[in-house]
C-alpha cells in the first residue's frame, strides 16, 4: 500500500523543469515520465529503497511512495521539490536571461539530499559524451541494481534501484569494460563507494564545505562536485567549471562570442554571484545554442578494446 503526501507550492510551479535535471538520459532506470505526465523516481535512501510517484494537478503536487524508503522520501518531499529554494534571490542582469526567467516562472532547484545517486552518474559523465555516460549508467544499474519497490501493475517496467555502495565497489573490471567505462572513472566510483557514508554527510553541509568533502576523493574535481551539488544540495551557485560546452554556450548567448573559456564565463556570471548555477539554467532554457562548426565528439568503444 502506498504512503501519500501532498505539497502546495507558493506561486507558479513547474514539476517537469524542476526535476528534469535528475534524469540521466531517456532510458534512466531510476527516472521515468509516464504517459499521464506522472514522474517516477527510484532512490536508495538511508532507510532503504523507495519508489516515488509525483503528479502535479490543481495547484498542488501529490506524492505516493512504496518500499522501505517511502516514509523518508515523503518526509523530504517539499525539499526535493524546491520548497527550500529561494527564486526571489535571483535578479536577471541580461535581456536573454530575463526573457527565460519570465517564460519559466515555475523553475525551482530540486534538492534530493542523496549524494551518491548524483555523484556516481556525474563521475560516469567525466570526459565522455552524454550518450556514453547514459548508456553506462543504464547498463550498470540494470545489471547490479534491484527492482523498484511497488506494485508491478503500477511501477513502470524496468525501473531499478541503484546498487548499494558495497555493490558498486565489487563490480568486476570486465563489467565496467562492457559498460564502456574506463579504468580511471571506474576507480573513482569505487573510491567514492568505499567512503560513501562520509560523502553522504555533504548533503547537510554548506555548499563550500560539501565541495571540499567531495573533492577529497581522488578523481573528483570541481566539475564533478558542482554537478553533484546542483542536485543533491540544490546549490544555486554551484556553476560547472571545466565543462567542454557550457562556457561557450554561456558566452555565445550573452555576448555573441564563440570561444569563451571558464575564466571568461565566470567574469560574465559575476553579477549573479550566489546564483550562478541558476543563471546558467536560464541561459540553457533560453534555447540559444552555439552554431556547430565541427563534427560531434565521437564516442569511444571501450567494450571493443
Automatic annotation (TrEMBL):
InterPro entries according to UniProt: Alkylbase_DNA_Glycosylase/TA, DNA_glycosylase
Q: Which Gene3D superfamilies match?
A: Hypothetical protein, domain 2
Entry's Gene Ontology molecular function annotations: alkylated DNA binding; DNA-3-methyladenine glycosylase activity; DNA-7-methylguanine glycosylase activity
Entry keyword DNA repair: yes
Q: Does the keyword DNA repair apply?
A: yes
Alphabetic keyword roster: DNA damage, DNA repair
- Give the GO biological process terms: base-excision repair, AP site formation; DNA alkylation repair
What GO terms fall under cellular component here?
cytoplasm; protein-DNA complex
Q: What is this protein called?
A: 3-methyladenine DNA glycosylase
Q: Which organism is it from?
A: Streptomyces mashuensis
Amino acid at each position: 500500500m502506498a504512503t501519500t503526501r501532498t505539497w502546495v507550492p507558493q506561486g507558479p510551479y513547474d514539476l517537469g523543469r524542476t526535476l528534469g535535471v535528475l534524469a540521466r538520459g531517456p532510458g534512466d532506470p531510476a527516472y521515468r515520465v509516464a504517459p499521464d505526465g506522472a514522474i517516477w523516481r527510484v532512490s536508495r535512501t538511508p532507510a532503504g529503497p523507495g519508489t516515488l510517484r509525483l503528479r502535479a494537478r490543481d495547484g498542488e503536487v501529490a506524492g505516493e511512495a512504496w518500499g522501505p524508503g517511502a516514509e523518508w522520501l515523503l518526509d523530504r518531499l517539499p525539499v526535493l521539490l524546491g520548497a527550500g529554494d529561494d527564486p526571489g534571490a535571483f535578479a536577471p542582469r541580461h535581456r536573454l536571461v530575463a526573457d527565460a526567467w519570465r517564460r519559466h516562472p515555475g523553475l525551482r532547484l530540486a534538492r534530493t539530499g542523496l549524494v551518491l545517486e548524483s555523484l556516481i552518474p556525474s563521475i560516469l559523465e567525466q570526459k565522455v559524451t552524454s550518450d556514453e555516460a547514459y548508456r553506462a549508467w543504464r547498463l550498470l544499474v540494470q545489471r547490479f541494481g534491484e527492482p523498484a519497490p511497488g506494485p508491478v501493475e503500477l511501477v513502470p517496467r524496468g525501473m531499478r534501484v541503484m546498487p548499494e555502495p558495497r555493490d558498486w565497489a565489487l563490480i568486476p573490471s570486465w563489467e565496467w569494460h562492457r559498460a564502456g567505462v574506463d579504468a580511471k572513472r571506474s576507480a573513482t566510483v569505487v573510491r567514492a563507494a568505499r567512503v560513501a557514508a562520509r560523502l553522504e554527510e555533504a548533503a547537510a553541509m554548506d555548499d563550500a564545505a560539501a565541495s571540499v568533502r567531495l573533492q577529497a576523493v581522488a578523481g573528483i574535481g570541481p566539475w564533478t562536485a558542482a554537478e553533484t551539488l546542483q542536485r543533491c544540495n540544490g546549490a544555486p551557485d554551484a556553476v560547472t567549471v571545466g565543462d567542454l560546452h557550457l562556457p561557450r554556450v554561456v558566452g555565445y548567448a550573452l555576448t555573441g562570442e564563440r570561444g569563451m573559456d571558464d575564466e571568461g564565463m565566470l567574469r560574465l556570471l559575476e553579477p549573479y554571484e550566489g546564483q550562478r548555477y541558476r543563471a546558467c539554467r536560464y541561459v540553457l532554457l533560453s534555447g540559444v545554442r552555439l552554431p556547430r562548426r565541427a563534427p560531434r565528439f565521437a564516442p569511444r568503444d571501450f567494450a571493443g578494446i
